[in-house]
Design goal:
It is a single chain. By secondary structure, this protein is an alpha/beta fold. It has a single domain, classed as Alpha-Beta Barrel (TIM Barrel). It has 17 helices and 8 strands. It has an 8-stranded parallel β-sheet with strand order 1-2-3-4-5-6-7-8. Helix 1 runs antiparallel to helix 15, helix 5 runs parallel beside helix 7 and helix 16 runs antiparallel to helix 17. The longest helix is centred in the middle third of the chain and has 19 residues. The radius of gyration is 19 Å and the shape is globular. The protein starts with 11 loop residues before the first helix and ends with a helix. The protein binds adenine and zinc ion. The site of zinc ion (ZN) has 6 residues, from strand 1.
């Protein structure tokens, strides 16, 4: 175990950037930067509602989750061809490599594209080829997780699953995203049961804007292996104790939470409280092109705003990201050794 007390505080930002880490909560459509949106719009002859990159960026002033989702789905309208999905994911992997991300589990939203007539094959193969190249060029391993949009029906989710099954080898799990309020996990009980029968991993957004009861039902009804966000669990002490006992990972996204007004500022974020409660918390970027930063921006800005967080927390967060990932034990052990080496070297 590294000697955290011997790591000087001024080493912390560099250590946060340098440490190997996994990203487990990134919507790949949320990595689409305005510059790429405009390039793809021109390439595909798609009309945009904004006259310039700057005007689009200026529209990124969100008041809640729905105000963000409206712009996020409009941004994704430029994605039509397999090459577009490849280019989007490749741009993300270049950022991830610079942030010392060694493993990424990417969410994608097929319904956002199939409802515009894009074949699901173009979505999945474009992303898959970017994953392959990221491994070849950067040594980054990755997995794809297909998300169902919870504002749509369960029947629509079943149709999406059926359309995706010919490409089953390319994704490892399913998730649940989009508008959380008034769309409880129970709405998707049958399709998640089917996914579990198929041997898919299952995760769900819960307790981002929705109540703590949605976290309980994601566990009880959907039988999820991770909760995405989950920050509202602190409103129910019994639930916090349950999450700790289960070692149920929470994929927390600090910059996202501030941009979507879940917390008023990073300084007001409850990450220290979640860590103190012994929860398996990880830090993630969610939709980095929209929320002001990629993974290292989330780490560095969160630690800057919350001085109670130190080297021990940084280590725990990176270690949790490996523990919570959907990879085999030898791979996880290898990353954990690399993480230990970085922290041992940082102690003076
Ligand atoms: N889709 C993309 N980002 C999301 C978020 N933060 N919550 C729910 N659905 C999303
Ligand atoms: Zn999310």
């Amino acid at each position: 175990m590294p000697d955290f007390d011997r790591i000087p505080r001024d080493r912390l930002p560099a250590l946060l950037r340098q440490m190997p880490k996994a990203e487990l909560h990134i919507h790949i459509e949320g990595s689409l930067e305005p510059e790429l949106i405009f390039r793809l719009a021109e390439r595909n002859g798609v009309a945009l509602a904004y006259p310039s990159v700057q005007a689009l960026r200026e529209a990124y002033a969100f008041t809640d989750l729905q105000s963000f989702l409206d712009i996020y789905y409009a941004g994704a309208s430029v994605l039509l061809k397999e090459a577009d999905f490849f280019d989007m994911a490749w741009a993300y992997f270049e950022k991830a490599a610079a942030d010392n991300v060694v493993h990424a589990e990417l969410f994608f939203d097929p319904q956002t594209h199939t409802e515009r007539g894009v074949p699901i094959e173009a979505v999945i193969l474009g992303l898959h080829h970017a994953c392959q190249r990221a491994h070849a060029e950067f040594g980054i391993t990755s997995r794809l997780i297909l998300c169902f949009l919870r504002h749509l029906s369960e029947d629509d989710a079943f149709r999406t699953l059926d359309a995706a099954l010919p490409y089953r080898e390319y994704f490892v799990g399913v998730g649940l995203d989009s508008s959380e309020r008034d769309h409880p996990p129970e709405k998707f009980a049958r399709v998640f049961a089917r996914c579990r029968e198929l041997g898919l991993h299952v995760v769900a957004h819960a307790g981002e804007e929705g109540p703590p009861a949605y976290i309980d039902s994601a566990i009880d009804v959907l039988k999820v292996e991770r909760i995405d966000h989950g920050v509202r669990c602190v409103e129910d002490p019994g639930l916090v104790a349950r999450l700790a006992a289960l070692r149920m990972p929470l994929t927390v996204c600090p910059l996202s939470n501030v941009k979507l007004c879940v917390f008023s500022s990073l300084a007001a974020h409850n990450l220290p409280q979640l860590l103190d409660a012994g929860l398996v918390v990880t830090i993630n970027s969610d939709d980095p092109a929209y929320f002001g930063g990629y993974l290292n921006d989330n780490f560095v800005q969160t630690f800057e705003a919350l001085p109670v967080l130190g080297a021990r927390h940084a280590y725990t967060l990176a270690r949790n990201s490996f523990e919570a990932s959907f990879v085999d034990a030898p791979m996880r052990a290898d990353w954990q050794r690399r993480l230990d080496d970085v922290f041992v070297a940082a102690a003076v």
